[in-house]
Amino acid sequence: MAECHPVGFRWVMEAKRRGATIIHVDPRFTRTSAVADIHVPIRPGSDIAFLGALVNYIISNDLWFKEYVVNYTNAAALVSEDYKDTEDLDGLFSGWDHEKGQYDPSSWQYRGLDVTPAAGHREMFSGEPRAERGAIVSAEQHDYTLTDPLCVFQIIKRHYSRYTPEMVEEACGVPRELFEKVARALCENSGPERTGAFCYAVGWTQHSVGVQYIRTAAIVQLLLGNIGRPGGGIMALRGHASIQGSTDIPTLYNMLPGYLPMPKASYDTDLQKYIEYNESASGWWSEFPKYMVSLLKAWYGPAATLQNDWCYDYLPHITGDHSHMVTVAAMADALIQGYFVMGENPAVGSMNCALQRKGLRNLKWLVVRDFAPTETAEFWHNAPEVVSGQVRTEDIGTEVFFFPCAAHTEKDGSFTNTQRLLQWHHKAVEPPGDCRSELHFAWHLGRRLKELYRASSAPKDRAIRDLTWDYRSIGAIEEPDAEEVLAEIGGYTLGDKKSLSGYKELKNDGGTVCGCWIYCGCYKDGTNQAARRKPASEQSWVAPEWGWAWPANRRLLYNRASADPQGRPWSERKKYVWWDAGEKKWTGVDNPDFIVDRSPDYRPGPEAKGIDTLSGIDPFIMQAEGKAWLYDPNGLLDGPLPTHYEPEESVLKNPLYGQQCNPARMEWIRKENPYHKAWGDTDYPFIATTYRLTEHHTAGGMTRWVPWLCELQPEMFVEVSPELAALRGLENGGWATVSTVRGEIEARVLVTERMHSFVQQGRTLHTVGIPYHWSWIGRSTGDAANELTAFVADPNVSIEESKAFSVQIVAGRRSRKRRAAASGPLVDREVEGPERDQPEVREKPAGKHGLHAGKTELTEEA
Amino acid sequence: MTTTITGFFTDTSVCIGCKACEVACKQWNQLPADGDFFSGRSYDNTIHLEATTWRHVAFVERGVSLSGQSTARPFSWLLMSDVCKHCERAGCLEACPTGAIVRTEFGSVYVQPDVCNGCGYCVVCCPFVVINRREDDGRAWKCTLCYDRQKEGMEPACAKTCPTDSITFGPLEELKEKAKKRLEELHRRGVTEAYLYGMNDEDQPGTEGLHAFFLLLDRPEAYNLPPAPSVPTRGVGGSWGAMALGLAGMVAVAVAASRAGGEKR
């Protein structure tokens, strides 16, 4: 966190000054470790074993927060009698469908009930959609003594029973005493009087089982009562400024603003069907239609009416997985014509970047917007495979359009970061020359498209013709007014254009307009709430008048959980939101995240619908039954509970199960993307992990031209331990060549004790640390780390695995810049080796473009 | 107008080595990069303070643990942002023959670039090897304690940008109080190796105390700081005395010789 989020880390140091214990779990000793109280070096890719052992420690030492867990989580829910755990099936859950190559989640469900997940894969329901699902939550079966072997608590207890401190030594290479020190510190800092927080960054997400890493942390935090309480929580530290904003109002292919799913061609054939699939009969998602209709009114204005389903049919309907790597593989197969790249440098920053560049070579046109021409814009004449002669410029037909962009100081706009806080930035200077903001680009492109189709009467063009696009423009460069866009996002009433104060005012009758329901109220009272900057000294410690947090300027989500079931604070020290019995309402230092007049005593009757199904002790209002999910009965593609699986390319056999890897992972079987052996590949015997340094930013497009930053980290390098250096004859400051079967790179060597060698299963395991900022353009250059990595991904979110894979390292400059994507695998060999999957999971159906994954129904090409 | 003596207190126990101070300093003072040089010395590629590097972050990898820190094996990484110390008794200032180097109203030691003639006497007289001449213009340069910003009531760029408040700026007397409290706090928590470097005349008689002082976690040499820095002129009194003794001795020898000669004659 100190490495990649030094400004946010200010608050960690402030907490430390006030007595907090800082624990850092990381394969490397980093700048964060330097100031932490405890540093735990962990083998890359083994975090679920570590976190699962924390779950086991908490349960077996009886350290869980009982009143919280019983009342606020699904610990007491009974699960289907058909459920089989990974303990029963050697690493698989029940429900694996060999033909489809994916799980059928029906055996994971609560007993006698299909429940809608608050997020994730709602389309996973087997059979026909049921609008009534979730309606009978109040009737579900529970065992509040938590003793039934098929209640969630007992399932979890059994699932993690072999995740012991000894297993942590074996799987993670973490000494038992160090693990126990962490477990003790965490438990001692949890409970009614204290709270502990988890912070993670992409180091947790970039694994083939990444979503489940975070899920394990959620289980730990729920067992300890650390969610919805001040000082608790799980903080996702995102990769860039406003990446949180770009998931809220998404650049993701499968989301509409506010986490409304993108319509799917095969299911959501009309608005009614779409709503049936996505609303929940109980919990807060019962409000779904209001959010959707208000969004469609924002986009299509007067054209959107009840009679035409509010122009629902104008929305693109997705026909498959169009995530990044899936799209690039289709590009490489020449199936995609054009590609917009804005503020990203995939030719350096994305997996197997030689395959990325092959994708770029097979486009008809490419638009790149950045500060300076990046490798993604220049691939056609000076990429490694062009320089080496493997690819010739004259054979590339892609037409590249490069647009210089404005920096954040040259445009108005907002950032939404980790804490869901919208903070406005004002333009300080005009952008120079032809540099323009993304807003300018998108708006003027839209204007030109509207002009192009103005006279068209074709029904297919109505989506463009009816689009509301009438923002005011300012100044000589005709910059659209960013505040006007924010006002539309924040919502207003259609009649009198009065700004809305929050999402509870949204309607499903077309009377309200709102570009993103969770942001509703960010332009309350006609003022830019995100631009508020009242100093901390002039307001409460919660600082509600600094910027604006979604939803409803609420600084802490699910904060009903900061009070006990009767509505009293758990302790004076951790007082936050409570029930005022006299006033008969919830109150506190923050905006209560609950139905404000719902008494703690309220229990819904069997006839209750919608948000009336939420009882007075249901703090997790987005969930269909108002309880936090320790166990996911639905919504995840790779199992209801996090389970330790090894990375696609590991150095160890899975010490816990016969199933080596996540059975539902996404693999691409393509000649440009060969894999190593599952483990024990003697050609590639070392662990590799990629990461960022404080001095540079992501793929380097912003920083490799800045002399003041380049002098601080002037060259590509790799980090190795003194043991590995001795083993491979590597000299500090000298050169090394690092290779996979996909590519080879050269780099300077930094020998440091900050790199750890792990002794596990009788072997010494070495890690090569590889920063990924460099490539061939800029003042500071070097080979790109992602020439080494592979297309392989987590099934839930299609995020790649770059934090743990296997490599070879040799001393000297041996690289001939070979790339599998240009000239075939670097080593010609038969890959016979141990299996990644149990027999019943092998031979998954092949999708298009080499993708092998379970989501076959969603991998059809449009 | 009354002004307060100001300075820096750099608490290395909360430094995260982000180098924002180095960049903020170069940006505000428009200093050029020194060149791209991969040193192989931890994450330190600027190595030392220079005429064009007025803040420098040291990265010290040690095979011993810090008190109170638990690690898998004995190891710690000390991070420290170094800067001109603005000595109470400044060697550079005393050595400057042109009067280019002055003591400002803020108590800082400032090189007036329009007066400096590049003689370089100051360079050899700094016990910390802070001040140096730029190759491109020959004049001597170092941290100004952001004299220009202070004149406008702003804090220096490095302190302003430091995300963890490892670098704090303020009235020197307040900083000393703050530093003493912080030291007590660390000692109370068992970080017994923490100490203050150069805060007072008593701590560092050779400089009579620093206006930019530090809380350190290892002996000064670990950070490339001198253990007992002393400005050259502190030896001047002794030199005069030694010279007087020498002269007296020579006179005595001469007298004795002449007497002896006389006797011979």
Briefly characterize the structure.
Chain A has 862 residues and is α+β, with helices and mostly antiparallel strands. Chain A contains 23 helices and 31 strands. In chain A, the strands form 12 sheets. A 6-stranded mixed sheet of chain A has the order 23-25-24-30-22-28. In chain A, strands 9-10-11 form a 3-stranded parallel sheet, with no helix packed on it. In chain A, strands 12-13-18 form a 3-stranded antiparallel sheet, with no helix packed on it.
Task: Name a few traits of the molecule.
heterodimer, A: about 850 residues, alpha+beta, Dimethylsulfoxide Reductase, domain 2, Barwin-like endoglucanases, six-stranded mixed beta sheet, three-stranded parallel beta sheet, 23 helices, 31 strands, globular, disordered C terminus, B: about 260 residues, Alpha-Beta Plaits, four-stranded mixed beta sheet, two-stranded antiparallel ribbon, 7 helices, about 15% strand
Tell me the strand percentage band of chain B: 15-25%
Q: How would you describe the shape of chain A?
A: globular
Helix content estimate of chain B: 25-40%
How many extended strands of chain B?
10
Low-confidence stretches of chain B: none
